[in-house]
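Notebook entry, structure prediction.
Reason for the run: the old model in the group folder had no record of what sequence produced it. Starting over properly, with the input documented here first.
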Amino acid sequence: MQRKKGNLKLENILVEDYAAEGKSLARSEGKVIFVENAIPGDVVDIQLTRNKKDWAEGYITAFHSYSADRVIPFCKHFGICGGCQWQTLPYAKQLLYKQKQVEDNLKRIAKVSLPPVLPILGADQTTCYRNKIEYTFSNRKYLTREELHNPSISSRQDAAGFHARGIFDKVVDIDICFLQAEPTNRLRQAIKKWTLDHSLPFYDISLHQGWIRTMQVRLCTTGELMVNIVFGYEDENIRLLLDKLLRDFPEISTLLYTINPKRNDSIHDLHPKVYFGKGYVTEKLEDFLFKIGPKSFFQTNSRQAEKLYRVTRDFADLTGKEIVYDLYCGTGSIGIFISKQAGKVIGVELIAEAIADARENAALNDLAHAQFFTGDVTTVCDDSFFAVHGQPDVVITDPPRAGMTEKLVRKLLDIRAPRLVYVSCNPATQARDLAVLDEKYAVTRIQPTDMFPHTHHIENVVQLTLREGKS
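New structure, fully documented this time:
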């Protein structure tokens, strides 16, 4: 190590592996070093920003040589926009490291007996796979290092795209995004041009003022297209812009707008107004239909969601008679997807709006044996509830990234369903929960599934079987 001006600089360091959250891992004199924007096989210089006894963090100041695995990113905004982190890595290698991430987390954190992890299910489509995307309109454009040093270029420029990685008040002006199929880019560009041509203000996130704020685009495999544009205030120009979009984009099946006077971009407590169409779109997974409104949650990769839900259904080992409890059920997509093989489906979810969607989706698919309830699982699922709806034969749980609450894990140990299927978007918190469930359950099957190519995110499904003598 070299010490320069009070800071440690490491030179000619080999990047060896990937760590959590997409960071890369190197070692120096026995210490683990975490860096970003590198791939295994790169040889780099690292300026340390944090230096602890056993680990350190830093950023790369120079590349001495590049990994043989490195490929040229296909998006010109790569490394600036926060949408994708792994475009420099071939997709087959991405899958290899994601598989390894699951295995490492389960072994290191869960520390329980594990079966072999099944080979990861990759995506057939690695670009244009998102059914939902959100763009931001801002008067604070992100500038490259070269642009920052050009006095003739001002950062107070209007931009339409995504927040710059790690910078809340700067937006990358996106040319082409490869996350969603057209007309997503043409829509964004048309709205930006029209707003500029009419001298209307883009939103200022620091001063909290401006007209056009964000736009959500939902494009389903059914071909239905929903667009919701969010404005800072009502204005007669809203109608002019929306009419222009309907003329130029006949593929729009429903068009909405939302007025958001708040200081944040969330629309969960706002009321989108239907300008054209039915106000929602319909997505299809296998033979099941799902109604998706502007505030509905739905898996953002429909084709991979089918794979994920098939694994979940397979791990449930259903014969057509089982009572299945779907916890963190959201809008009911998993419960509905597995319903044909179940005797009864009971979904429980804390968010009332999601349960309303789940009930609509059950009705849309004529599922009389699927019922959905609002509330905290740990209080809803008591003896009186089981007396009415039956003890679960299978419990499916799909919690957020934070994993299950300790109270719920203990509740599952009390319920003692013969089988649990744990769907997770964070193998680290899943592993933590498996360590507690090991008191009564054995992990019997593990299946990683890649929902988001070119990112470090990974889904993992685990089947757990109640140990003999624990019922």
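Summary: DSSP finds eleven helices and 22 strands in the chain.
The old model has been moved to the deprecated folder.
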